[in-house]
Design brief:
The structure is a homodimer. Chain A is mainly alpha-helical. Chain A is built from 23 helices and 3 strands. Chain A folds into 2 domains: 144 residues, no CATH class; 233 residues, Neurolysin, domain 3 (Orthogonal Bundle), CATH 1.10.1370.30. In chain A, a hairpin with a 2-residue loop joins strand 2 and strand 3. The first copy, chain A, is globular and about 65 Å long. At the A-B interface, helix 1, helix 2 and strand 1 of A face helix 1, helix 2 and strand 1 of B.
């Protein structure tokens, strides 16, 4: 960067400080979910609010605006593809941030932190009424946020929120992809669950103590290439990944003795996010868009790829079963690779999104997308969420919801104002499938490599083609660059049908 | 506070924000010692440095100075004992903080964070040469700090550092108390170790897995009254307590299978600090001196009291042995209360300060006080520390130092610039002994209460007489208020002789 003009250097340095404060913020959120004692919640809310205020002040510093304008007039910078991409995204970030009054930013952080605490309690007590006033506050704040960000022409208020997580996406366009996909998926789920034959769940049902599950999780993510000197794996209520800073990426998971595969696939999922975070060029560009992920949809494509396309493949289990056997001992030894493979690819109507199988998962997401879109537009009142949730759940997933803890209280997202976030989960599956076809063209012996425990060839491909680019390309551009086509639903349906029908003897 | 003038309210609110940032800083330091992955060190150093800069900017905000001046002219405030104490200490803090240039503050934080990381490695590798250049940097920065703070009239440069931890203390005065005490202690240690009879170490030598030691530690600190909903106990290299914020006090300890009592007394020690932190009126006065501890000497009086005056008493063990037995099972059951009591009161010349017994401990502290005083004055070069350490260690403790890891590299303090801190450890023992006499006057059946597992009566006394006062009184004033006398060495010598001589049959 030494040949860049002084303004560009100053700009990057200011943004690096803002990002450093942001990384402290991210980190105290991680602690809030992992180790903070309950009575620390009020003080933590004040810390979070104040930190958010400081980050906001730095990202909206008028000096940043001035420097940006100067750089945008500099032809040498605009002629450098990476600097130009940096400036394009810095402009977007600055414009978005300056639209939000700092009072609102700090209120969102403070109320969010408290609401999240109440949510935890409400879920434990299966008490939606306890959570309701807090969710109402968060919805009102989110609407105010959307109004400040501005509704895009021809769009709806929800789009302003969605755009934060999946730039340029529109609810109506997502609906146009999701609705037919929903029908095809529902059809596939019907075919599979009606096939008369279904995989034996026994391999998933063996009881495994937490400590052994943790050891297995660590062994798998290490094989995937996750650098444990630059990251951690801890336990929390709702698994997540936080790419706190350069050299510090934190994964969380949760264990239940009776369902070791839930924890394992959850861990693989967060590890996929973590590998993306570790692959971003943060040491070089921290604070610049070049060190940032593209969108949540692309982020999710990485997590779903490692969880489903790798972790639920036959080749993976040919390598992994001996590893599991070494860690767990006896109980797993009575099962063959085919049995375990079939078992982890079982399709079952179930209640919890993060434990759902590959086929039904998208139905869980679509339900949330529809509800949050209606809450934000005002078509649905917060008080009516449980009823509407339960009704649609039965319609799409074909089973009743026994209680709110396993229904509309199951996810942390809404409690701290993540509205417009859910659809990115399904977009991630779509991107992953489309990338996967190209990866198999480029690495024709991928399965053989998995059988040998070589996952690094895949990781290298992802590092080169996705991670190292940071935010140089928009999600759509990246997809075109890699696959030569815009995003489409066909690869995902092909992948699911191609894998799942044989498992069910169809 | 509603009847206080607006300036006072604004002042308290500004200081609360500064303290909130300070609490974030304290918290990321806690993580650095407990859960941070090693590759996160560089990013963490940048975070720490930036946070320190922000805290410094807020505590030195000229608006704080202005408001302080206004309040200092307000007779109604000065007539209120608590507000007056608040203003007295706010003035002290403000003057101290404004003497330090923000560049120096941020350099101290950044170099300190890196030096601490190197220290950890150097200790593991027993390599003083690796640590030496970093310690030299920290000493140079500390001297610059002392010069900025200002050497008190008739004092020495070291006093400026000491004053940060023990306000108004002077090295020459400490020397005047320590030197005769050192001679008496050395005499007592000689008498005891030469008595021909010494307690059987067997009860301390049983092997106990980490998990059981952790369970015992939690049981004991809960009985002491530590609120685990408002705190935690974690594992680190060097045990410490961080009173992060209201409702959030974090203790750390370390376990070795072969020495369960080291961990237990370390945990009791940090718990004593933690009880003080939990007893300070933070919910009401956070950010004000009224919510702060008085000095490190007073803080240490609390940790040493719970560790030694309670935890090494016969009455405590009458209650505790069945608890230990319930947690550990068989190996402890062959020992009587008398045997365990004698064993944990053994006096042994040993290498590690934090594991030293009650009598030799002060000798370890005096050695450090003498060395750091000489390093800061320039009488001793950093390169000569190992030699000088080993020489004096043999002189005072009567045994050779086998390597630097168990010698001058054993403590974390110097690595991040805590110079002038060590003497407060011995002052803590002196204060604890003097308070203890008064406590036994006020609660004549204290031992009977311990036998029943009632430690809350003691805690209540400490809450009322010490914790709840915050910084209302200076250390010397508090001592006079409670005991009617200034600090003196006699109670500590009486306590040690009264307890230890019978253990050794003298």
């Amino acid at each position: 960067m030494s040949d860049h003009p002084a303004d560009y250097t100053e700009l990057c340095s200011l943004l690096k400080k803002a990002a450093t404060l942001g990384s402290v913020s991210a980190f105290i959120s991680w602690d809030q979910e992992t180790y903070m004692p309950p009575s620390g919640a009020n003080a933590r809310a004040e810390q979070s609010s104040l930190m958010a205020e400081l980050v906001h002040a730095r990202t909206t510093d008028p000096r940043v605006g001035e420097l940006l304008e100067n750089c945008e007039r500099d032809k040498s910078l605009l002629g450098d593809a990476r600097a130009a991409a940096n400036l394009r995204e810095m402009r977007r970030d600055y414009d978005q941030a300056t639209k939000l009054p700092s009072q609102l930013v700090s209120e969102l952080a403070e109320v969010g932190s408290k609401a999240q605490h109440v949510w935890k309690d409400a879920r434990a007590k299966n008490d939606f009424a306890m959570f309701r006033p807090w969710l109402e506050k968060m919805v009102a704040l989110s609407r105010r946020k959307a109004e400040c960000l501005g509704v895009p022409t021809g769009g709806e208020i929800y789009d302003a929120l969605l755009d934060q997580y999946e730039p340029d996406a529109k609810a109506s366009e997502i609906e146009a992809v999701f609705t037919p996909l929903r029908d095809k998926l529902a059809g596939l789920v019907s075919d599979l669950t009606g096939a008369g034959k279904s995989p034996d769940p026994a391999p998933r049902r063996i009881k495994v103590p937490e400590a052994k599950q943790h050891a297995l999780g660590l062994a798998i993510i290490e094989a995937y290439g996750f650098d444990l000197d630059a990251g951690r794996l801890d336990v929390t209520t709702h698994p997540f990944c936080s790419g706190v800073a350069a050299g510090d990426t934190r994964l969380t998971t949760r264990y239940r003795e009776s369902s070791w595969t839930d924890a394992l696939f959850g861990t693989m999922h967060e590890c996929g996010h973590g590998l993306y975070e570790q692959g971003l060029p943060k040491a070089e560009f921290f604070g610049q868009p070049l060190a940032d992920s593209i969108s949540l949809g692309i982020h999710e494509s990485q997590s779903r790829m490692w969880e489903n396309f790798v972790g639920r493949s036959h080749a993976f289990w040919e390598w992994a079963l001996p590893v599991v056997s070494k860690t767990f001992g006896d109980p797993i030894n009575s099962f063959s690779v085919d049995e375990v493979y079939a078992s982890v690819n079982a399709v079952e109507r179930s209640l919890i999104r993060v434990e759902a199988d590959e086929a039904t998962y998208n139905l869980h997401v679509m339900l949330r997308f529809e509800l949050e879109r209606a809450i934000i537009s005002g078509d649905l009142a917060v008080a009516d969420i449980p009823g509407e949730w339960n009704k649609r759940f039965e319609e799409y997933l074909g089973m009743p919801v026994p209680d709110d803890a396993r229904g509309c209280l199951q996810d942390v997202h809404w409690s701290f104002g993540l509205m417009g976030y859910f659809p990115t989960y399904a977009l991630g599956n779509l991107y992953a499938a489309q990338f996967w076809d190209k990866i198999n063209e480029d690495i024709p012996d991928l399965d053989d490599r998995f059988r040998r425990g070589d996952f690094i060839t895949l990781l290298d491909w992802l590092r080169t083609n996705i991670h190292s680019c940071g935010k140089q390309y928009k999600a759509g551009q990246l997809c075109e660059r890699i696959t030569g086509k815009p995003l489409e639903a066909a690869p995902l349906m092909r992948h699911l049908e191609g894998k799942l029908k044989p498992v069910y003897g169809l």
